[in-house]
């Protein structure tokens, strides 16, 4: 009985600590109070971030119909991209800019629930406030889609959303992975933040977090079909010119052409400036072998 009296308070303290540690971390709304986003600038942020690649309707030829629905299988279940159109009921049209920033950079819904990290907020957390505001302004110009989001297919224990808060304690970090000189900062911003290249090109540990010790060293394809290639110099010998040309045209130095999900990535990068493609190529050439 005496042991029970000691264990019960200890269990309550541990439960309270766990509840506190897994609580959602929100942005300070005051950061965005004076920001007026520019939709024209937001279009390039939208393109570089690959928003349409995941969130456009799978049965539609319109990449700006952001009703979601695409399925993304993983070891933890199958995740479905949600509706992020400006529809106020089924999309994000009723959100504020601060709530949008919570979702994109912290993985937190307006109701305070954790989003699964299939949504690459671990990369977007490095996005600047100005780019967030511009992106938000651009999304408001897109056509609303009155289509409900599909539920994820995730079993126990991964369906316990609160546990994602503990995962974030381990893996949600706004620091840069690669230390670079000033001339490579634009490329780093595009690769590590907006384009979230490491989400596919970096292997993960048993909990699904990126193994930054093997940054961009290649990884199994989450779909279970094949692998995502390494971009580190011990495995990847393309020149910076080759990389930039591939991102513009989809053609490799071996006269092959892009395929799979990378085709959507190339489609996005082809719409960016030549300077941005060159910046990405320069960053890739600065990578170290794991």
From TrEMBL:
Citing just one GO molecular function, the answer is: heme binding
Q: Which domain of life is it from?
A: Bacteria
Cytochrome c domain location: 37-143, 182-288
Q: Does the keyword Protease apply?
A: no
Q: Does the keyword Metal-binding apply?
A: yes
The record's section on Pfam families has: Cytochrom_C (PF00034)
Keyword field? Heme, Iron, Metal-binding
- PANTHER family referenced in this protein's UniProt entry, alphabetically: ALCOHOL DEHYDROGENASE CYTOCHROME C SUBUNIT, BLL4482 PROTEIN-RELATED
Q: What is this protein called?
A: Cytochrome c
């Amino acid at each position: 009985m005496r042991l029970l009296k000691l264990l019960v308070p200890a269990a309550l303290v541990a439960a309270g600590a766990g509840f506190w540690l897994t609580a959602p971390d929100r942005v300070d709304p005051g950061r965005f109070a004076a920001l007026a986003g520019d939709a024209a600038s937001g279009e390039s942020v939208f393109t570089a971030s690959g928003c349409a690649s995941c969130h456009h309707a799978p049965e539609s030829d319109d990449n700006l119909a952001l009703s979601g629905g695409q399925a993304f299988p993983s070891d933890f279940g199958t995740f479905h991209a949600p509706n992020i159109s400006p529809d106020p009921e089924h999309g994000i049209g009723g959100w504020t800019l601060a709530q949008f920033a919570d979702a994109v950079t912290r993985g937190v819904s307006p109701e305070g629930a954790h989003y699964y990290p299939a949504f690459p907020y671990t990369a977007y957390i490095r996005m600047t406030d100005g780019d967030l505001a511009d992106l938000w302004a651009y999304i408001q110009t897109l056509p609303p889609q009155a289509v409900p989001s599909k539920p994820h297919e995730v079993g126990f224990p991964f369906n316990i959303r609160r546990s994602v808060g503990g995962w974030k304690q381990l893996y949600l970090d706004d620091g840069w992975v690669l230390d670079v000189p000033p001339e490579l900062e634009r490329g780093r911003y595009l690769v590590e933040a907006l384009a979230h290249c490491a989400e596919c090109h970096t292997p993960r540990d048993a909990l699904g977090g990126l193994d930054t010790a093997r940054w961009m060293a290649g990884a199994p394809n989450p779909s279970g079909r094949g692998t995502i290639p390494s971009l580190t110099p011990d495995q990847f010998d393309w020149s910076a010119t080759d990389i930039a040309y591939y991102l513009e045209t989809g053609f490799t130095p071996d006269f092959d052409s892009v395929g799979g999900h990378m085709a959507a990535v190339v489609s996005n990068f082809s719409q960016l400036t030549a300077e941005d493609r060159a910046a990405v190529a320069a960053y890739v050439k600065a990578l170290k072998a794991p």
